[in-house]
Amino acid sequence: MSAAARTTGVLSVDVLGAVVDIHAPASIRFSLERALADLPQGGGGRTMVVEPAGDQFRIEEDGAIVLDAIHPDLVVESVVWRLNQIAVTRTSHLLLHAGCVAGTSGVLLPAASGKGKSVLTAACVADGLDYLSDEFGALDLATGRLAPYAKPLDLDGHMVPGSALRPRSVGAECTVGQILFPRFEPGATLAVKALTPEWTFAALVAHSTNLNALGLDAIRWIAALANGRTAALVTYGDARDAVAVVRDRSDAPVSDLQPTVAHHTKTPDLRSIAVGSSVALHDASSGTVHVLNELSTLVWTSMISGENLGEISTSLSRDELARTVERLRALGLVDTETSTDNGSVRTP
Asked: pLDDT grade, residue 5 (50/70/90)?
């Protein structure tokens, strides 16, 4: 049985490798079974108990209440919310807040909550693309491939499984082929704007939900996506126009990604990663990711190499160079005493 395993009073589902056994009364079990029908079966995992509490419900795990005072109409939504929380704790996958569909290859649709990514994902699935998720693009850190997390789609407050939009619509693990950032604007004419690797990298970092737990490994895969895949901003007023773009971008076969190499720097906790024509810096001590522009990349590279800044200063004003150096020092990205009077850098 490929859908959620069903036993008396228990619904077992697999959430990116974490098996959850959901114990629920018969009054709500059918609704849960229908909503979670597309998640793979599990069994013998952590226990989640959904039980009545007066005229409301509560969710318990290991004897502790994790959510209380749930209105009966919101039980399914609350269980899905908790499953999403469990997914975020997984360290086997980088989770990007994105819709995700697939044709020949996968298409990531990163967007903030409430920006229409679930509606666009649903329209793509109804049009024939495979459904992977409307919540997370789950990138396997071992392979760089997308894993399905086929939770029910959240459509205007209703939990709708992908298979209700189109039978047998749930896709299998696949390679990311394209990254499209959807932006719905009522009445807008379709516009597709190509994005730079630097912009794409920064946006994917912003849409990463478990980046702090994964650290440098995740950053290397994000850089691989930004450097190795085409990305675009898709503005639309009619979802049908956006679906046509997604479908077109899902047809091209692509090779598997490899994580971008991270280089050591003179600062022990700082690693540099090439992103487009610039550099991203990951500070392991704080978990901070810095994306340098081309000027800052040039200055930073010269400074950590102990090179003379004279050649740079001939093409920049002294004030502009000094401001760039000061910003890098303020961020803790260089550990040098710097003078821009003659373009020199002195390393203590």
From this structure: very low
